[in-house]
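Annex B. Sample input.
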Amino acid sequence: MEMFGIISVLTVLSALFAFINTKFLKLPFTIGLMIIAICFTLAIIFLGHFEHFILEEATLLIESIDFETVLLEVMLSFLLFAGALHTNLEDLSKQKGPIMLFATLGILISTFLVGGMFYFLVDAMGHPIDFIYCLLFGALISPTDPIAVLGILKDAKAPKKLETKIVGESLFNDGVGVVIFLVIFSIAQRGMASVEAEEIGFLFFEEVFGGIGLGLLMGYVGFWLMKTIDHYETEVMITLALVMGIYSIAHYFHFSGPLAVVVAGLFIGNKSPEIAWSKSTKNYVDKFWELLDVFLNAILFVLIGFELLIITLNREYITLGLIAIPITLLARYLALLGPIALFKKKLDFAPKTDILMTWGGIRGGISIALALTLGADMERELFLTATYVVVVFSIIGQGLTIGPLVKKLIK
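Annex B, continued. Sample output.
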């Protein structure tokens, strides 16, 4: 099927699922869409036992979509920019210390904790896996996604400081998580002996600081351009072009695209409303990016549901995926303890921040996309199934219960 046909099918199904959820289920938007997509996929698999053509065509459609490219190189940049654009920098700066530690040291600690625990557990179960591949799993499963949980936190009237920490961490840890994954992936491909510490340090420095620098530069350029005019159509186009241009430049120079668009989004979203935008422009820019965010998230979560068609579903892989759920939760809890303890006296933390941030750390599509980049010799099928199990539990199980948990603990 051609690209336009694929986009059309996904858009029609997303709109249909959104209607069903809004009219009948009334679940949080993205969670409801994913649940309906999974049910729809299971129905296709069931019908496929009687009519093979249905299952074969559906599988071919999903296999024709390069999920990791679509998410990592197309959708992620727009989603992160939209999130950053609507994030208050003043609130973020008050919590910058713990947020930076959560998004950097926290991700690194979680990577090694998940990798280490998974390595020993699978070995005890009679399925030994190289430690470096377990670290890859730790790196791809550690980044969190705020999309599915933000609306729930607002409805539960979660403290603003808690919401800021979860959003701020998630905006930055996607970029840091991808960099850590790329470093470990390079070591796994070439071997530890052929990768020097200086090379790893340079790669990390280039990706992280190059991305931040590019984001600041391009954010200022976009801000300056919009400051010189008052024409909302043009200014909306400038923000759109900015995201696409930043990601393309970052890809060319091997900078972190996710970090670059987050920094640019924070700069534009906090600097422009008072200086560069009229009220009309602010309204149109906000609505445009809100709608684009909703549309892309609908497509993303429906795609996550449909990925079930290409997941290897056998008892061993599913069992390892179920075992990975408590491992990832425990690793996240332990990784958060250090930064929380360090800043607890300096900053006014919400009650049970460690528990709420652990349960509110939802895993999303980026983990599946990174799992799809693994080579066959890296236990790709096992890690892809385990990742899918963790992501589905995280979005549905944690996503639907974080609201009641917030109300109970904060009360």
